[in-house]
Design a protein that fits this description.
- The chain has eleven helices and seven strands.
- With 295 residues, the chain is of the alpha/beta class.
- It has a three-stranded parallel sheet with strand order 3-4-5, covered by helices on one side. A two-stranded parallel sheet has the order 1-2.
- Strand 6 and strand 7 form a beta hairpin.
- The longest helix has 18 residues.
- The chain is globular.
Length: 295
C-alpha cells in the first residue's frame, strides 16, 4: 500500500478476467495483512454473478466466501437504469437482467455486506424511468437496510459505442443533473441517508453544484497514477485534501473524513478561501463534464 493513510480499498476486475480463485482471495488477504483495519470494498454485482456461475456455486455461497476472505462491502455499480429494455440498449444486450443485480445486492445485504446504490442518467431514459429506479431502490432499502449511499452518475457519451452514443445523445445538462440529485434527496430521505457527488464524472464545478442541492458527500480521494484501461473517467484523477477543504469552505459546510460505512474518522477545519480562486473555475474540464461532454 502507498505510504498514505487509507481507510478503504476498492478491489475491481474485468468480468472476462475474473474467476475469484485462490488468486483473488490471496489479494484480499495480502491487503489485510499489510493493513489489518482496511475496509475491503470488493467486486461489482456483475463480477460476482459471473464468478459464481463459472465456479458453479450459488450467489450466497460466493458472497459468503468473499466475507470469509475479508470483504466488508461491495460497490452497487452496474445498475445503470433498473429497466431491462434500457439496459439492453445501453449495453448492446450484454448487461445481465435487472433481477440479477437485485439478487446479488440483496444477497450481500442479507449476509451483512453493505453496498452502494447507483444510477447512470441522462441518456435514453425518461423522468418516469428515473423515478421508477429510485422507487425500486427505496423498496429494497425498506427490506434490507443495506445501502450506504446513492451515487448518481451522468452518462458519458465518449465512453459509449458509436451506436449507443447516437441514440443516447450528448448527456445530461447541468439543470438535469441538479434536478436529479434534488429529487433523489427527496425520494430517498429517511431511507438512504447519503447522496454522493460523482466528482470524477461531474468535475469539481459540477460536484460543487450538486452539493448545494441534494448531495452531502464528495466520495473518495483517488490516488493518482495509471489505472486499468477500464478506469474511464477516473483514470489519472486525484482529489487532494486541499481541494476538498476549498469546496467545503466555499459551500460553508463542515468537513469530515469518513469510513466506507460513514463512521467519522476525524473532523477537518476547512481552509480559508476568501482570496483563493472560486472552485467553479478550478478545473477547465468541469463545465464540459457537467453539460454532458465526456472527459
Amino acid at each position: 500500500l502507498p505510504p498514505r493513510s487509507a481507510v478503504g480499498e476498492l478491489v475491481d476486475d474485468d468480468v472476462e478476467d475474473l474467476l475469484l480463485r485462490e488468486r483473488d482471495v490471496r489479494l484480499v488477504l495480502h491487503l489485510l495483512d499489510a493493513q489489518p483495519d482496511l475496509h475491503i470494498h470488493s467486486l461489482r454485482p456483475v463480477e460476482i454473478a459471473n464468478a459464481a456461475d463459472r465456479l458453479g456455486v450459488s450467489i450466497v455461497e460466493f458472497i459468503t466466501r468473499m466475507r470469509r476472505a475479508g470483504a466488508n462491502s461491495i460497490p452497487g455499480t452496474g445498475a445503470r437504469i433498473l429497466n431491462d429494455r434500457i439496459r439492453a440498449v445501453l449495453s448492446e444486450k450484454t448487461d445481465p437482467p435487472v433481477q440479477s443485480w437485485i439478487e446479488v445486492v440483496g444477497t450481500a445485504h442479507s449476509l451483512g455486506l453493505g453496498t452502494t446504490a447507483t444510477m447512470v442518467y441522462g441518456h435514453i431514459e425518461s423522468s418516469a424511468d428515473q423515478v421508477a429506479h429510485l422507487r425500486l431502490l427505496a423498496r429494497m432499502q425498506d427490506q434490507t437496510g443495506g445501502f450506504t449511499e446513492f451515487i448518481p452518475m451522468p452518462y458519458m457519451p465518449l465512453e459509449a459505442s458509436f451506436r449507443v452514443a447516437a441514440l443516447a445523445g450528448p448527456g445530461p445538462s447541468l439543470r438535469q443533473t441538479r434536478a436529479l440529485h434534488a429529487v433523489a434527496r427527496l425520494m430517498l430521505s429517511g431511507r438512504i441517508d447519503h447522496i454522493q457527488a460523482a466528482w470524477t464524472k461531474l468535475g469539481l464545478a459540477g460536484a460543487e453544484a450538486v452539493l448545494r442541492g441534494g448531495a452531502d458527500d464528495l466520495g473518495g480521494l483517488l490516488l493518482g497514477g495509471t489505472l486499468a484501461r477500464t478506469a474511464g473517467a477516473e483514470a489519472h484523477r486525484e482529489l487532494s485534501l486541499t481541494d476538498v477543504s476549498a469546496i467545503a469552505a466555499e459551500l460553508g459546510r463542515p468537513l469530515r473524513q469518513r469510513t466506507t460505512d460513514y463512521a467519522t474518522v476525524r473532523r477537518i477545519a476547512p481552509r480559508e478561501t476568501q482570496h483563493a480562486p472560486r472552485m467553479l473555475a478550478f478545473e477547465d474540464r468541469s463545465a464540459a463534464a457537467v453539460h454532458g461532454s465526456a472527459t
